[in-house]
Amino acid sequence: MNEQQKTQQQVMKPTTKEHLERLQQLHNDATYEPPNLKKARKRLKKDVDIHYDFSIPEDMRLIGENQTYYIRTYGCQMNEHDTEVMAGLLSLMGYTEASEMKEADVILLNTCAIRENAENKVFGELGHLKPIKKENPDVIIGICGCMSQEEGVVHRIMQKHPFVDMIFGTHNIHRLPSLLKEAMFQKAMVVEVWSKEGDIIENLPKQRKGKLKAWVNIMYGCDKFCTYCIVPYTRGKERSRLPEDIIEEVKQLARDGYKEVTLLGQNVNAYGKDLPFDYRLGHLLDELREIDIPRIRFTTSHPRDFDDHLIDVLAKGGNLLDHIHLPVQSGSTDILRVMARRHTREDYLDLVKKIKAKLPDVTLTTDIIVGFPNETDEQFEDTLSLVETVGFEHAFTFIYSPREGTPAARWKDETPEDVKKERLQRLNTLVNKQSKKAMERYIGEVVDVLIEGESRKNPDVLAGYTKRNKLVNLKAPKSLIGEIVPVRITHAKTWSLYGELVTE
Ligand code: SF4
């Protein structure tokens, strides 16, 4: 603890018994704000306000001097980017990043709720944190991210892991400085999870992970409510940032020398639907392509909102890359209906046809769930045939995982687990085969590769990505890290390419 913290500390940390007593009182305590999935489902008409006046509270500006933080991130790019924001907030408070969790003064677990497996990992990590807290009671342990938005999770943490100091959700990340202060000087666990989404807070600081590739949020939340998905509950209603704020952020990244920007949203194709003027993702990309930044990607797309104008803009090329990640989830219209995906197999195939007509070299990748409750063999075969018809070059494939609070979690499922596993294996075999075939087509071709650094497996080899998101390994001088260079592909594996630098 630094001097400022010592002078401000008024109370000792509680014992477990005290903590449990406090737990009993919390439900009547107005300052305790737990999540509520029913409330999170509501979509209120109220407009979202945009705030440009964020600043760190005066008394928290130096609180982290000579102190360190460690954030462990689980899940998607949205979470990765939230972690960059939290790291930015902590560094404005004087904290620096610790290289190891056990050495940090503030430890945050930025959690993911998409699958049971992801949640189990977090609970496993909490088991490791208990002895760290015992050894150093001053360390502040916080749980944030999507799991914090789930009632069941918050109650479990409060009951079984009372050494946790604070729990906050996805809508109030900007409140981290104030919550940290409360956790430091308050006896009880600080719980502040807003069930209703917050406003949009611009100008939040960001400690970006790299100097080449950057994430830019273009919107938050999701209104689709697919029956298996917890995201609309944990991330709230769709809220789009204003185009001028996004454009300015991308321009600044270009000025800072970034080579690639990925626009983020749970459903980026819904961008602009909530804006009071006619402006969608296609319009935004059309403006962004004028910015002098070599590569612009976006993720994740929903087929339903992928409009013709967007396809026309993507066809203009330039810095807009022809790789589209387009989750389909199932190839069976019946399953898509019970998933409430709002598109059929035929709608999806028509969309792919339209995209390929305008972008003949496009790389399509997808997400697929197998073993959705009561999926039949026939319905699964429909998925396999759709994968073949579209020719996906990569797919994130999963066995369905029930998420408490979603409609599908209440459905009885007769499909045995071993059948689901066997289906996943068959699907993966097909996807791998298609990936290898797609990779082999590059042999002999010259592709532009953004060299990101040394290969993780071999420091003598450099690695980077093509416009279509293919990993390429090559031997080249390290001075080329950060550059986009031409590479002739000589060899292909299922998930990566190998090549030589083209020098003439
Ligand atoms: S569109 Fe995506 S984020 Fe939204 S509910 Fe469906 S699967 Fe979840």
From TrEMBL:
EC number: 2.8.4.3
EC top class named in words: transferase
UniProt cross-references to InterPro entries, sorted A to Z: Elp3/MiaA/NifB-like_rSAM (IPR006638), Methylthiotransferase (IPR005839), Methylthiotransferase_CS (IPR020612), Methylthiotransferase_N (IPR013848), Methylthiotransferase_N_sf (IPR038135), MiaB_methiolase (IPR006463), rSAM (IPR007197), rSAM_horseshoe (IPR023404)
PROSITE patterns: MTTASE_N (PS51449), MTTASE_RADICAL (PS01278), RADICAL_SAM (PS51918), TRAM (PS50926)
Domain TRAM: 440-503
Protein name as it appears in the record: tRNA-2-methylthio-N(6)-dimethylallyladenosine synthase
Binding partners and assembly: Monomer.
Binding site for [4Fe-4S] cluster 1: 76, 112, 146
Keywords associated with the record: 4Fe-4S, Cytoplasm, Iron, Iron-sulfur, Metal-binding, S-adenosyl-L-methionine, Transferase, tRNA processing
Residue ranges of domain MTTase N-terminal in the record: 67-185
Statement: the UniProt record of this protein carries the keyword Metal-binding: yes
Family: Belongs to the methylthiotransferase family. MiaB subfamily.
HAMAP family: tRNA_metthiotr_MiaB (MF_01864)
Domain of life the protein comes from: Bacteria
Cofactor note: Binds 2 [4Fe-4S] clusters. One cluster is coordinated with 3 cysteines and an exchangeable S-adenosyl-L-methionine.
Amino acids binding [4Fe-4S] cluster 2: 222, 226, 229
Catalytic activity: N(6)-dimethylallyladenosine(37) in tRNA + (sulfur carrier)-SH + AH2 + 2 S-adenosyl-L-methionine = 2-methylsulfanyl-N(6)-dimethylallyladenosine(37) in tRNA + (sulfur carrier)-H + 5'-deoxyadenosine + L-methionine + A + S-adenosyl-L-homocysteine + 2 H(+)
Record function comment: Catalyzes the methylthiolation of N6-(dimethylallyl)adenosine (i(6)A), leading to the formation of 2-methylthio-N6-(dimethylallyl)adenosine (ms(2)i(6)A) at position 37 in tRNAs that read codons beginning with uridine.
Entry GO CC: cytosol
Co-factor requirement: [4Fe-4S] cluster
Localization per Swiss-Prot or TrEMBL: Cytoplasm
CDD domains: Radical_SAM
MF-aspect GO terms: 4 iron, 4 sulfur cluster binding; metal ion binding; tRNA-2-methylthio-N(6)-dimethylallyladenosine(37) synthase activity
Domain Radical SAM core, residue spans: 208-437
Primary location class: cytoplasm
